[in-house]
Design brief:
With 338 residues, the chain is mainly α. The protein has 13 helices and four strands. It has one domain: Rhodopsin 7-helix transmembrane proteins (Rhopdopsin 7-helix transmembrane proteins, Up-down Bundle). The strands form two sheets. The chain has a two-stranded antiparallel sheet. It has a two-stranded antiparallel ribbon with strand order 3-4.
Length: 338
């Protein structure tokens, strides 16, 4: 994200001079190729892993518990980013030249950021669900209409994310750069995209603190509480599985989400107030944020016993007799949220 430091702007044609950092980014072919290759791997793994996950969650996993509903929501956002990444790959390989119009640019950008923040909120919801099922089981059992609450929660997440990202839906995010003969998509932003610096501050606060930092703190609390509970009461297998799940979730946050959100805040503050930039680092962190869509199926594996069993049957990792399967289900149900 770049704010133009020059005040003379008319629509999408601006009287401005590219700074050296921006110019070097758009001319850096190697970085563009590296980002494109990362996106290619992510797209392939995303579509295969999440396609299989969606099939298992929709047609082979029953009953549809709140955790399953949250996982379906998470898989949906992952598949959306998987279908959007090829457009970003084409944009990168064409030298940051967007050829599909301003509406498609806004739509693809919206998908990109909606995936990130809906994933964050959904992982928080899964963490809360496991916390209630394992640490507060009595409260968990007293909750009525849990499936309805899960569906409403998913709709609420989408509403919150789309309301925060509303400026991306209503702004022309393309930007013509005549001296390079390219039209960028969400790589150059006008300062007047929002009315003033207060509006920019509110926009950034909502993205970084409301949609990232708060869910991160809640998710960390839930999984640490689950691990402590299982450490006291659980047998070794259940404890190790809970620790692996917590590790993967926190890895997704720290590897995929934290660098991007922190650099977004730093870059925009530097750009708006000090005319400096860390955009190259932000651009690289943005591509790593998509890795969450490849790691999410591992979350399903450790969080849902039914998903785990169906996947084992499909890939023939282990064959269980009916008696063994009943024993395993009984054992896992002791410490697995329904």
């Amino acid at each position: 994200m770049r704010g133009d430091s020059h005040p003379i702007m008319t629509g999408n044609s601006s009287i401005f001079k590219l700074d050296n950092a921006t110019l070097s980014l758009f001319k850096d072919v190697n970085t563009s190729i590296i980002i494109s290759v990362i996106y290619m791997f992510v797209t392939a793994i995303n579509l295969v892993g999440n396609g299989l996950s969606m099939w298992l969650l929709l047609f082979r996993t029953s009953p549809k518990t709140p955790s399953i509903i949250f996982m379906i929501n998470l898989t949906l956002t992952d598949l959306a980013i998987g279908t959007a990444l090829p457009f970003q790959i084409a944009y990168q390989l064409q030298g940051y030249n967007w050829k599909m119009g301003k509406h498609m640019c806004s739509f693809m950008t919206l998908i990109f950021y909606t995936n990130m923040y809906c994933s964050i909120l959904t992982m928080m919801a899964i963490g809360i669900d496991r916390y209630l099922g394992i640490v507060r089981p009595m409260l968990f059992r007293e909750t009525r209409e849990r499936k309805t609450i899960a569906v409403v929660s998913c709709l609420f997440m989408w509403a919150v994310v789309l309301s925060v990202l509303y400026p991306l839906m209503t702004t022309d995010l393309t930007f013509d750069i005549p001296e390079l003969g390219i039209t960028t998509c969400f790589d150059m932003l006008k300062k007047d995209m929002l009315p003033d610096k207060t509006a920019w501050a509110a926009f950034l606060f909502s993205m970084v603190f409301v949609l990232f930092l708060f869910p991160f703190c809640v998710t960390t609390f839930c999984y640490v509480s689950v691990i402590l509970k299982l450490t006291r009461d659980s047998k070794t297998a259940q404890k190790h599985r809970a620790i692996r799940l917590a590790f993967i979730v926190l890895l997704v946050f720290t590897l995929c989400f934290a660098p991007n959100n922190i650099l977004l805040l730093i870059h925009t503050v530097l750009r708006l107030f000090y005319q400096k930039s860390v955009y190259m680092a932000y651009k690289l962190s943005l591509c790593f944020s998509c890795l969450n869509s490849c790691l999410d199926p591992f979350i399903y594996y450790f969080a849902c016993k039914d998903f785990r069993q169906k996947l084992r049957q499909i890939i023939n990792l282990q064959t269980l007799s009916s008696a063994d399967l009943m024993k395993l289900e009984h054992k896992e149900s002791l410490y697995t949220a329904p």
